[in-house]
Amino acid sequence: MMNKLYPMKFQPLLKEKIWGGTHLHALSEEAIPDAFYGEAWLLSGIEGEETVVLNGWLAENNISELIEIFMGDLVGDKVFEQYEEDFPLLFKLIDAADDLSIQVHPNDELAQKRNLERGKTEMWYVMEAEEGAELISGFDKQIDKESFQKLITQQRLESVLNREKVHAGDVFFMPAGRVHSIGKGILLAEIQQSSDTTYRIYDWGRKDAQENERELHVEEALDAIDFKVEKNYRTNYQSINNATIPVVASSFFNTNILSATDPIRKDFSELDSFVVYLCVEGALDLKYSEGKIALQRGEIILIPNAVNEIMLIPKQAAKVLEVYVP
After folding, report:
1. Tens digit of pLDDT for each residue in 56-104?
2. Which residues carry out catalysis?
3. Which of 54, 93, 245, 260 lies at a 20 to 30 A Cα distance from 202?
4. Which residues lie across from 314 on neighbouring strands?
5. Domains of the chain
6. Helices and strands (DSSP H and E) totals, the chain
7. 264-301 CB burial, b ≥16 within 10 A, e <16
């Protein structure tokens, strides 16, 4: 039927980055062969950067236009009440061929004080990692604002940062305020609040093609940083085949991991939210009452709130992230 909402795929937006690589070219026919893409925005409602539907009768409409028309039927009544026409989440793939800057994001409270729409809490799911690849998450020893500033001046910030060796399947939750960086040789999926605010603290002295160093935001970062040292920065979970495993529960989004070799039926009738599936391994068909849609590694499907039941049918061993607003 022409007027019914249905599961939707989106055209990713590729972003060239100084630290980017070549893993993301396969996602878009519009990719420039010799460009180094660091990010693919798979689903975005950020103004001027909205992703566009690829399939069905709503093709070529962007996510913000759809929310304006379908409201709670698309995103859920509770989500629409809270966020109105803003899509609350941003989904990305990140290809780090080099180390990203050491950075931090503000929380909602600080963002609002600074006239920014919202803060940025995020999570990472590692899809690929080269041998010995590491990322930075938080501090490994207690410091305060004053000693942090001293270490930056002395170019010794690395001495207090917590490094984690990573492998495919690792999950890291990054609440706003946690200092972090993705290391060289990592391809990951990122789910975050819909915000593009990043405070760059240190960029390894790196220069662009014009021999300019990238702008740093140390002063802005100081009020955003949470200096608390955590016992464990990694999200531990047990992967169970053909089961829905919760890995992240936050006030902004919940994420489950599904590893599937057999068909899985999902019923969303009790959930007042859209659901997004991001495929991180293998390929599957997503079947719904009016048809089916293929999903492969690196692709995303949005299930509108009005769609209550689907089947996930793996074509091979598949793994997906299932994300919704709690």
Report:
1. 999 999 999 999 999 999 999 999 999 999 999 999 999 999 999 999 9
2. 200
3. 93
4. 284
5. 8-222 (2.60.120.10), 244-324 (2.60.120.10)
6. 6, 22
7. bebebeebbbbbbbbbbbbebbbbbeeeebebebbbbb
